[in-house]
Amino acid sequence: MSFSENVADCEGTLVISCGEVTPESIICKILQVESLPEAVTSKSNLKGYSWSFTTKYYSSKINLFAVEEKVELDPTFSESIKAVIFYFDSKKLSSFEDVLSWMDTLKNIDTEVQLLVCNNCLDECDNPALERKSILKWCVENQYELVELNPSPENEDEDDENFKSAKGYDRVIEALQSYTWANLVMKDEKFVDESPKKESAEGIRESEDAAKETKSSVSENNKDSSSSEEKGCKTMNVDGEELGLEEHLLNNVLNGEDPGGESFEALFSKFASMKEKAAGLNNEEKKKYAEKVAIAFWRAMGGDEDEIEGLDDSE
């Protein structure tokens, strides 16, 4: 089955459900509406809905595609897809296996935002493959972010202070809005085609504050790296090769390489997957990784090296 559509001016997101929740209902949550508007594209088992949104700094317009079953996507359409959202039932192994069955279909799509959504993942369940640590490990290995719509309170408590973010569908929306879509238009500056993107002065100041807070949290973490274990938090050791999701980007910034002057935006667009990576580290690894991220953000913003003296970026 082939699919070919004219997606000239809009990049898009695939929304796929491997559970009882329909792709259309997920799109309703993203659009924050009770019922869907008329589809802007419709063919076979794929329908597209337009989403225009405005944030504090910019506005953009993309398409959200509800996918009912596996379809063959032509190269032109595939190139326009920059994000994919999977929903699965975390209580059914068959639902997660359905997600896995899609990987070959999507292997030629270069998606920058990849979300795996479910109601919640349990620390312990009847099937070890569905336990939270197993799902997180798969996400780390495949560069997906796990988004729980109703996370267990204990799992919320385990989130590292350096990587706080929105929850549930708010996080889904936040992740999509954090990506630099091709037709993004800054509120206070003109943005045309692929010219370098610029942050407003206020946005940079807020980002600098966030970097300083990260540095402060890291320093506090140095004082007692075992605090999470004392609280009974579960950690997961993951092989170093599996944790290299953003290593190339981070190392480029740490080594002073900034092609096009866009390293800060590139780092920001990958923040969600950095958070997911941190969730799979033990205490010592998490501390070192947080230091590395803090240094990279600071340098990407042109921060004074004296301000980060003492943080170790040699790892």
TrEMBL record:
<dbReference type="InterPro" id="IPR027417">
    <property type="entry name" value="P-loop_NTPase"/>
</dbReference>
<protein>
    <submittedName>
        <fullName>Alpha- and gamma-adaptin-binding protein p34</fullName>
    </submittedName>
</protein>
<feature type="compositionally biased region" description="Basic and acidic residues">
    <location>
        <begin position="192"/>
        <end position="233"/>
    </location>
</feature>
<feature type="region of interest" description="Disordered">
    <location>
        <begin position="192"/>
        <end position="240"/>
    </location>
</feature>
<dbReference type="Pfam" id="PF10199">
    <property type="entry name" value="Adaptin_binding"/>
</dbReference>
<dbReference type="InterPro" id="IPR019341">
    <property type="entry name" value="Alpha/Gamma-adaptin-bd_p34"/>
</dbReference>
